[in-house]
Amino acid sequence: MTTRGAKTPGQRTVRRTYTLGRSEELGRDQVALGLVVVLTPAAFIGCAVLAGAGISAWLLVLVPSAVLLVREADAVWPLVAWTGLGVLWVVQVPGVFSWWAVPAAVCVLLSHVATGLLAAAPPALEVSRHTYRRCARRVAVVSGVTLAVAVASQLVVRLALAGHVAVTVLALAALAGWLWLGRLAP
């Protein structure tokens, strides 16, 4: 760990940077975001196992590949890794629905946001509190909508409504319209 600059009465903060192996110097925020990116595939796998998936060799290959997501956050690796994990979820998790899909979706969302922040900022840059708050609000909204859709879909199935696919599609169209109108509002 290195410290850049000395704290004087005119300065507000001291920027700390970390060097991991032969990498460039990383700021505290970049290290924290990197941990989120590395840990979310493992949490996703945990959700899959709790949903009934067996542990296969592919899972053991994809989780360590999360290190590539941090190293090459702006490359195609996040798409490849999450596509592989999604395919494994579809193939390995029994049944059509599991409540573990909701926290698994939140894992994907958190990884996406953290990867985006990693790719958008230089390695030693600190991410502003405003950016964190904005991202936290968006993650909360998307997570809430995901939970609402899961609850609505299970409610429709439990009530055994005729044409429940059409009802679900209409609910999703209404949600999309509401979100679109929200973007148009000043």
- The total tally of domains equals 2
Number of helices, counting only DSSP H or I runs of 4 residues or more:
7
Shape: flat
Note the gap between the termini: 45 Å
Main-sheet strand order equals 1-2-3
Largest sheet: 3 strands, antiparallel
> What's the number of extended β-strand segments?
3
* Relative strand content: 5-15%
Report on the structure:
By secondary structure, the chain is mainly α. The chain has two domains: 14-127, no CATH class; 128-186. It is built from seven helices and three strands, in the order βββααααααα. Strands 1-2-3 form a three-stranded antiparallel sheet. Strand 2 and strand 3 form a beta hairpin. Helix 1 packs parallel to helix 4 and helix 6 runs antiparallel to helix 7 (164-184). The N and C termini lie far apart (45 Å).
Keywords:
3 strands; 186 residues; 7 helices; three-stranded antiparallel sheet
Helix and strand layout, with pairings?
Layout: E1 2-4, E2 15-19, E3 25-27, H1 28-50, H2 57-62, H3 66-71, H4 77-92, H5 101-120, H6 129-159, H7 164-184
Antiparallel strand pairs: 1-2, 2-3
Helix pairs in contact: 1-4, 1-5, 5-6, 6-7
